[in-house]
Every structure is written in structure tokens, then in C-alpha cells.
Amino acid sequence: MEKNIELFKKISLFKGMEENEIIQLINCLGAIKKKYSKNTQIFESGIKNIHVGILISGEVHIVEEDVYGNQNIFFRLHQGDIFGEVFTLINIINSATIPVAITECEVLLIDKNSILTPCNKICSSHIKLIENLLYNVANKAFDLHSKVLILSKRTTRDKLLTFLSCKSRESGDQLFSISFNRQQLADFLCVDRSALSVELSKLKKEGILDYHKNTFRINTDIIDNASIRC
Amino acid sequence: MEKNIELFKKISLFKGMEENEIIQLINCLGAIKKKYSKNTQIFESGIKNIHVGILISGEVHIVEEDVYGNQNIFFRLHQGDIFGEVFTLINIINSATIPVAITECEVLLIDKNSILTPCNKICSSHIKLIENLLYNVANKAFDLHSKVLILSKRTTRDKLLTFLSCKSRESGDQLFSISFNRQQLADFLCVDRSALSVELSKLKKEGILDYHKNTFRINTDIIDNASIRC
DNA sequence: GAAAGTATGTTGGTTTTACAACGAAAGGAG
DNA sequence: CTCCTTTCGTTGTAAAACCAACATACTTTC
Known about the structure:
Two copies of one chain form a homodimer. The first copy, chain A, is α+β, with helices and mostly antiparallel strands. Chain A folds into two domains: about 1-150, Jelly Rolls, CATH 2.60.120.10; about 155-220, Arc Repressor Mutant, subunit A, CATH 1.10.10. In chain A, about 40% of the residues lie in helices and about 20% in strands. Chain A contains eight helices and ten strands. A four-stranded antiparallel beta sheet of chain A has the order 1-7-2-5. In chain A, strands 4-3-6 form a three-stranded antiparallel beta sheet. A three-stranded antiparallel beta sheet of chain A has the order 8-10-9. Chains A and B meet through helix 3 and helix 5 of A and helix 3 and helix 5 of B. The structure holds a DNA duplex (30 and 30 nucleotides).
């Protein structure tokens, strides 16, 4: 586990902690590491989950599939991201929203109760941990808020431009890449893939946008400065 | 302020605390009470907000208006609800999402820093307070997650049925009332009001739904048990 | 109780989306 | 290189949503 210490130091949950403090905490929390192969669910659906997950390597999507087979992608998680904490904290059991491994990946699993029940030994770290968890959940709420802002747009074009503006602002450049392919982007925006392609083509014709595969260049005066994050 | 103590005892932020503990905490936090008249903004937009708000009386909508004038209603807040905490916690400054007083209302304002900076006197209450804030933010994240689930539906019908199913499950009865009027419901579902009315009429004709004003009766075998909350 | 204002339902025209199907391009495996 | 799979753009059609305008019902005000 110690070989991951450089990663752990960057994780929001351990922010403001010293190296030895983190190692002690990881042991104290009884964290376990688990591997998942491509296209497998990380928490079993229908079973009450008591773990908070931290993504160590690989890519994970938080998805929900509706009755028509449409996949709704909530988030794409990257190294160091925390997941499962919201549902676990408030004891939501039968959610159909689940983390799916998009590539082979490694995950650190921490029992929720060991986070919330203060242990005698390292109480000061524990308070920091809970505060860090608070900031983490607040950030997740903000990400969900951003997603609502995108989905609240009435047209595919507006959804798309809101998303791309955000990505451009995030990268600080008109030229930027996204980690979704077309189908995944459509699933993230909750629109039809072919309709998305049509809209992309139109925007290209109109000179508002240029793109090749997953690399985009967006016209600067289209970018709006709404405070969102995708 | 003490006359509101019965309300404060019910507020999630003060859960698990004794009456005198709460009174002490309110004073220690330097909370102030403020009145807002109908249709006024509670936090000024564009100005960095450092307050967490608690709704004491009246009704508040969290809204965002887009460039076309469409109002997007995120939430309807009721007595005891907490707001502004997510943006304040993570220092989002120029959000266009703002709390608006729908009726005349009273609000308790608490400086974020007095919550996060532990005071010497009542440290045990303070830890409880931060834990309660954590649960509160997790619940807000879940509410936003629920809203994403509604907006991810492709048709007005599916958005509407998801919302009404949720409300019916919440009330534990096929017969239930909602606090939105038609325009507000349309704004919450992010659809056109007249299209919403058309869809409601269709559902009534098909025998799936019956309604009069804000009271609805929904066919039991339509109600799905998705874990969401609206 | 009349008048004014507000909320809801209805209709028709226009725009947008979903859906299915197809073909071209890109990528991988043998 | 060839075959196979995946990804992406395109097209046409049917369904759905938006929008504006209007009619009716309900509320509020004086």
C-alpha cells in the first residue's frame, strides 16, 4: 500500500496531512485495495454499500441505465477521485446509479463507519478527515449542480455549447481535448448520438466550432463564463 | 431569537443537540435574522457570499435564469431548510443560481467561517455541527442527483411521471398535492408550460393520471420505486 | 358583484429530436 | 494485407417540443 503514498498525498480526503499521518490513517481506517476488470460494476447493485471508494488507477463512469436502455453518464472519474460517499453517508440502498470500470482499475475501499466513528489514537487527523470529506461532498454537489445546468438547456446545441465552453475554460485554451467518445458524450448530455453528430457538423459549418476526433477548438466569443465544472 | 428554539431543534444542522446547547451555539456563531419581502433575491448576485442561510419562515426557490428568460427552478425550500452552504463552502463566487423569496420570509444567516473555525468554548458541539453539515450537504447532493435523473429523461412525459411517482412515494399515497403551480412545475422540469399542460391532459385521457389544480392521483402500477427525492 | 388580473388548457405552425439504417473511416487481430 | 469490429457522420421519417396566441376558469380587488 505504501507505494501509493505519492498518490494519497494528492487525494482531497487526505489534504493537509503529513505522509506518516496518512499511512497511519490508512491502516487505522482498515482500507483495502481491490482490482476490477473492464466493464464490471464496482459496487453490486441492490446490495447496501458501506464503502467509500477512491480510484487509484484506471477510469470509472458513474452511470444509470433507464428502461429504454439509454445510459446516463453522471461523471467520469479519474485517478484520486472519491465515489460512493454520498449514497453511503445517507444510507441510500437501492439506487440504480452505479460505478462501472471503463478500463481495468484499482480501487481503495474504506468502510464508512471507520471514517465517521472517531478512533482514540489519532483524533486530530480524524477531524481533518471529516472536514475534508465535507469539502469533497460539497464539490460533488457542485458538479451535480453543473450537470443540472447543462441538462436544463432545452436544445442539444445549447447543452453541447455549455459543456464545451466549460471544458475550454477549464483548460484555459480554445483548443482542448475531452475524454469522452461521441456515444459517451451523448450519454453525458442525455441526447441521441446521431443528433449530437448532426449538431457538431452544423456548428463546424457555421464556423463556431472546429474539431477532429476528441480535440475541439471553440470560438472565443462563444465561451460563456458560467461557474460550472464538468 | 429564543422564540424560534422549537424550530431550531428540528433543523438538521442542530440534530442531536440539547436546547441549551443550541442556544449557546446560535450566539457563538453570531447568527443574525433577516427579513426579505416577496420576489427579492436573498444573496446579491455577483458578490461573494460568506453566509449559510436557514429558512425560518416563508418559501424560497433556488433559481437560475438563462439567456432566453427561461427560469430553471432547482429546489423549493421549506421551513428549516439550509441553503447557500455548497457555494459558500467551496468559494464559488459568480454563480447565477440564486435564492429568491417566493413569499415574504425570515432567514437566519450564519457566517461560514464561524462554523468551520472551531471555537474554544463548545468544541464538542462544533464537531457535531460539522458532522451535521456533512450529512446536510450529502443530502443536497442526493437531491441534485434526483434532479439529474428527472432531467435525463428524454420526453416531457417521462420527466413528469418520474417527478409525480416520486411525490406519490414520498407522501405514501396515490393521492397527493404538490407545491408548484403549472409554470413552476414546468420550470422545475425544464420544459414548456403549454407542452406540460398538453401532456397532463393526455395522461388524464389515458387514465394514467387524474388531477385537479395541484392535487394529483396517479395509477399505482405506474409508480416506480427509483430512489430519488424531489 | 363587476372588473382586472392570474392560472390553466387548447390549438396550429414551426423547429428540434429521436430513431433506424447505412456507409465511410479508423483501429486491431490474425 | 485482409477481415472484423468500432466509431463517426449522414440521411429521411416520425414523434415530440417549443412558441405564440387565444379561450376559459379561477382570484383578487375595489
